[in-house]
From TrEMBL, chain A:
The protein's name: Aliphatic sulfonate ABC transporter ATP-binding protein
Pfam families from the UniProt entry: ABC_tran
One GO MF term attached to the UniProt entry: ATP hydrolysis activity
Gene from which this protein is expressed: ssuB_1
Swiss-Prot/TrEMBL keywords: ATP-binding, Cell membrane, Membrane, Nucleotide-binding, Translocase, Transport
Nucleotide-binding recorded as keyword: yes
Organism: Planotetraspora mira
Keyword Magnesium tagged: no
ABC transporter domain boundaries: 21-235
TrEMBL record, chain B:
Sorted UniProt keywords: Cell membrane, Membrane, Transmembrane, Transmembrane helix, Transport
Annotated CDD domains: TM_PBP2
One Gene Ontology term, aspect cellular component: plasma membrane
Localisation per UniProt entry: Cell membrane
Membrane topology according to the record: Multi-pass membrane protein
Name by which UniProt lists this protein: ABC transporter permease
Stretches that traverse the bilayer: 87-108, 120-140, 146-165, 242-263
Entry's family note: Belongs to the binding-protein-dependent transport system permease family.
Keyword Cell membrane in record: yes
ABC transmembrane type-1 domain residues: 76-260
One of the GO BP terms on file: alkanesulfonate transmembrane transport
Length: 251, 277
C-alpha cells in the first residue's frame, strides 16, 4: 500500500485525525476490461493530491467510485466525512439560477447566506441571479466550484475541471482553487492529464496506469510555485517518464 | 433535438414578440400583405361578376356580413361556446391521461414495460377510424366527441413527455446524487423541469390535433356547436356560413397556439435569455 507522506502544508493536527478516504484493493471491470485493478490509496485530511494518467487509465473511474457514483466497484472503499464534486463540464442545472444551483440539495438553516458567501469567494456575486446558460466557461466553472465548496466538504473531488477553459482563465482558476483550498483545507483529489497543473497545485502526485498506482511523488516545493523551479523541472521529467512520454518529444 | 426548434420562428403568425418578424424582414413586412389582398380582391370580383357562383363559394363581402349577422343573432357565440367546451373537457381529460401515463412510464422501468407497449400499439390505430366504434359504445351525444378529442390529445403529450423525461441529461442526475438529492427531489428539481421543453412541444401538437379531432367529431350528428352550424349550412347551400365556421375554427386554433407560445416564453425563460444573447 502507498504510504502517505504528509505534504509540507498539512497541519499536524489534521494529519493526526487519520485519512479522509481509504481505498483498499478496489477493482472495477467493464465487461472483460479491468479498469481499476486492486488499487490502494489513502487520502489524508487536507491533503492535495493530483492523479495523473493517460486516457483510459482509470482516473475518472476512481473519482466516480469515491464520489459514490459507481455502485459496481468491488473492494474496500471508505470515506469519512462529506464529499463534493466539481466535474469537467460545470454541470450547472440550466433551469435554476446560479444561486439556486449553489444551494441545490443544501440542508442548512441559512442556504441563501451560504450561497452568497460562496459566490463572493469565487468572485461571482454579481452573477448570482443569472441563468447558467448565460455564463462564460470560466464563470460556470467558478459557480461549479462554489456549489462544491458551499457544502464544506472534507474531500473535494475535481474531475479535470480546468481542461475545457482557455489558458488565461485556467491560470486564474488555478489560483482560485489554491486560495480556496488554503482557506477551507479540504482534502483534494484532482484528476488531470496535465503534468504542469499537477506540479503547480498538489502536495502529492500519483500516476495511474493500467488500473494501479504506478508512480508516486511528493512535491516539496513551497507555494506559490513557479513552473521553472528546478525541483519541479526534475520531477516533471520523472512524471512524464512514468506516463511513458519523453519530455524532449513533447515540448 | 427539439431544444432549439421551440423558439425558432416557424410561422409568421401573430406573435407576442414582434422582434422575430422584424429581424427576418427589416422594414418590408407590408410587402407580404400584397398577394393575400390581391387574392381576396380577385375572389370578390369573380363573385360580383358571377364567375364564381354563390352555391360554390360566397363572396368575401357576403361572408363578412354573414359573420356580423351570426354574431348579432347569437348563433356564432353559442356555437363557439359549445365547441370550446368540448375541446376544453376533452383536452383536459386527454392531457391528464397522456402526461400521467408518461410519468408512470418515464419514471420507472416497470412502468415503462407496463404502459409503453400498449401506448405504442394504440398509437398505430387511426383514431378517426374509431368513430363508428365510439358511436356504438357511447351513442351520439357529447361523450364520443369529447372522448375523441381526449384520445387525440393524449398521444402527442404522452410521447413527448415520455421522451422528455428519458432525455433528461444523466450528468445532471449525477450532480443531484453528489449533492445528496433523494429520488423525489431528483424528480422535482431535475427530471420534471428537464422534460418540460419537450412536454410543451407535445402540448402544441396536441392542441393542434384537438381542434382537428373536434371538427371530425362534430360532423357526426351534432345538434350544437360549430360543426353543427357548418353541417346545417350545407343543407341550405349557405357557403357563406360554412366559410365563417371554417375561419372561426382556424382562428381558435391559432389562438390556442398563441397561448402555448406565451406559456413557453414564461416557463422557459432560462433558455430564451440564452438564445436572445
Amino acid at each position: 500500500m502507498a504510504t502517505r507522506v504528509p505534504g509540507p502544508l498539512t497541519r499536524p493536527s489534521e494529519a493526526a485525525t487519520g485519512p479522509v478516504a481509504t481505498v483498499d484493493g478496489l477493482t472495477r471491470r467493464f465487461g472483460e476490461r479491468t479498469v481499476l485493478d486492486r488499487l490502494d490509496l489513502e487520502i489524508g485530511r487536507g491533503e492535495f493530491i493530483a492523479l495523473l494518467g493517460r486516457s483510459g487509465s482509470g482516473k475518472s473511474t476512481l473519482l466516480r467510485a469515491l464520489a459514490g457514483l459507481d455502485s459496481e466497484a468491488e473492494g474496500g472503499l471508505s470515506v469519512t466525512g462529506s464529499v463534493a464534486v466539481a466535474f469537467q463540464e460545470p454541470r450547472l442545472v440550466p433551469w435554476k439560477r446560479v444561486h439556486a444551483n449553489i444551494t441545490l440539495g443544501l440542508a442548512v438553516p441559512d442556504p441563501k447566506e451560504k450561497a452568497d458567501a460562496a459566490l463572493a469567494e469565487v468572485g461571482l456575486t454579481e452573477r448570482a441571479g443569472a441563468w447558467p446558460l448565460t455564463l462564460s466557461g470560466g464563470e460556470a466553472q467558478r459557480a461549479s466550484l462554489a456549489r462544491a465548496l458551499v457544502r464544506e466538504p472534507d474531500l473535494l473531488l475535481l474531475d479535470e475541471p480546468f481542461s475545457a477553459l482557455d489558458a488565461l482563465t485556467r491560470i486564474t482558476i488555478h489560483q482560485l482553487v489554491l486560495q480556496l483550498w488554503s482557506v477551507h483545507r479540504p482534502a483534494v483529489l484532482l484528476v488531470t492529464h496535465d503534468v504542469d497543473e499537477a506540479l503547480l497545485l498538489a502536495d502529492r502526485v500519483l500516476v495511474l496506469d493500467r488500473g494501479r498506482i504506478a508512480h508516486e511523488s511528493d512535491v516539496p516545493a513551497p507555494r506559490p510555485r513557479h513552473r521553472d523551479h528546478p525541483d519541479l523541472t526534475s520531477l516533471r521529467t520523472t512524471l512524464l517518464a512514468a506516463l511513458g512520454v519523453s519530455p524532449e518529444g513533447t515540448t | 433535438m427539439s431544444v432549439l426548434e421551440l423558439d425558432t420562428p416557424v410561422r409568421a403568425e401573430p406573435h407576442p414578440g414582434a422582434r422575430i418578424r422584424r429581424r427576418r424582414l427589416p422594414g418590408k413586412a407590408w410587402q407580404r400583405w400584397i398577394s393575400p389582398l390581391v387574392l381576396v380582391l380577385a375572389w370578390q370580383i369573380a363573385s360580383t361578376t358571377g364567375l364564381l357562383p354563390t352555391r360554390l363559394l360566397a363572396a368575401p363581402s357576403t361572408i363578412a356580413a354573414t359573420a356580423v349577422d351570426l354574431v348579432q343573432a347569437g348563433t356564432l357565440p353559442t356555437a363557439i361556446a359549445v365547441s370550446l367546451q368540448r375541446v376544453l373537457i376533452g383536452f383536459t381529460a386527454g392531457a391528464i391521461a397522456g402526461v400521467g401515463l408518461a410519468l408512470v412510464a418515464g419514471l420507472s422501468r416497470k412502468g415503462e414495460n407496463a404502459v409503453d407497449p400498449i401506448m405504442q400499439m394504440l398509437r398505430a390505430l387511426p383514431f378517426f377510424g374509431l368513430i363508428p366504434l365510439f358511436i356504438l359504445w357511447f351513442g351520439i351525444g357529447e361523450a364520443p366527441k369529447v372522448l375523441l378529442v381526449a384520445l387525440a390529445v393524449s398521444f402527442p403529450l404522452y410521447l413527448n413527455t415520455f421522451a422528455g423525461i428519458r432525455g433528461v441529461d444523466g450528468k445532471l442526475a449525477e450532480v443531484a446524487r453528489t449533492v445528496g438529492l433523494g429520488r423525489t427531489q431528483l424528480i422535482r428539481h431535475i427530471v420534471l423541469p428537464g422534460a418540460l421543453p419537450q412536454t410543451l412541444v407535445g402540448l402544441r401538437q396536441s392542441l393542434g390535433v384537438a381542434w382537428l379531432a373536434l371538427i371530425v367529431a362534430e360532423q357526426v350528428n351534432a345538434n350544437a356547436g360549430l360543426g353543427y352550424m357548418i353541417n346545417d349550412a350545407r343543407e341550405f347551400l349557405r357557403t357563406d356560413v360554412i366559410v365563417v365556421g371554417l375561419l372561426v375554427y382556424s382562428a381558435l386554433g391559432l389562438l390556442t397556439d398563441a397561448l402555448v407560445r406565451l406559456l413557453e416564453r414564461r416557463a422557459l425563460t432560462w433558455r430564451r435569455e440564452f438564445l436572445a444573447r
